[in-house]
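Thread title: Can someone regenerate the structure for this chain?

I was given the following input by a collaborator and told the matching structure tokens would be attached. They weren't. Posting the sequence so someone can regenerate them.
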Amino acid sequence: MDGPASGDGTVGKALDVLDMVANVGAPVRFTELLAGSPFPKATLYRFLQTLTSQNMLSYDADRQTYALGMRLVRLAHTAWAQSSLAPLARPHLDRLSATLGETIHLAQLDQGQVLYVDKRNAAQPVEMFSQAGKVGPAYCTGVGKAMMAYLPADALEQALHRQSFYQFTPHTLTNRDALLAELAAIRSLGYAFDREEHEPNIICIAVPILSDRGRAIGALSVTSTKMRVTLDGLEALAPQLLSAAADIALEARNWRFPE
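Best answer:
Regenerated them for you:
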């Protein structure tokens, strides 16, 4: 993992420890955490004890493992309701799903990466990376590029620094210049494509959900496979996606959704 958050003091370091536990994806022993920790043994133990006493972590004495605590579940549920587009976008995703029969994604940007906040599976589901709550790369996904294209210059620069440019497929954009050219094209069109850039055979069209100030607060996509539909076929769905995105943006404005 990255080192402790510079300048964020004790709170930042405690959050780093929470991230360490979360990133394991399963209950984890102290020795496993220590092996990958930037903190000394005593410091790591102190943070784990404090987080456990605050119910941010739970500790299984029999297995001697740490896991995320129920207090985090409560906080996550509140954050989902207050800071996620998912609750107000739900009926719009339902309508798109029923009308189009393909996979529908709702996403937001989180530290320069894509956070999938809701999903509707296709009538004939396709196995793919994305799931609600999962984080994915921004530079090689339709929703990620659709949002990045409308970031202010300073925020875009920060997001670009967080892209790995790892080549997942032969179609992946693997450098900053290629991505910037793609983002310019997206701003011109008003929507983005995933041309098998993250996963083989998976293609999508994505549109940004824009605030009154033109800032992307989220993105919608229709995802399918190249065996079932062409990019031209997906592009024909752009008007429906753009209309749904505009409706969600209007509701977000009325709700004073945080940008």
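The chain has two domains: 9-74, 84-255.
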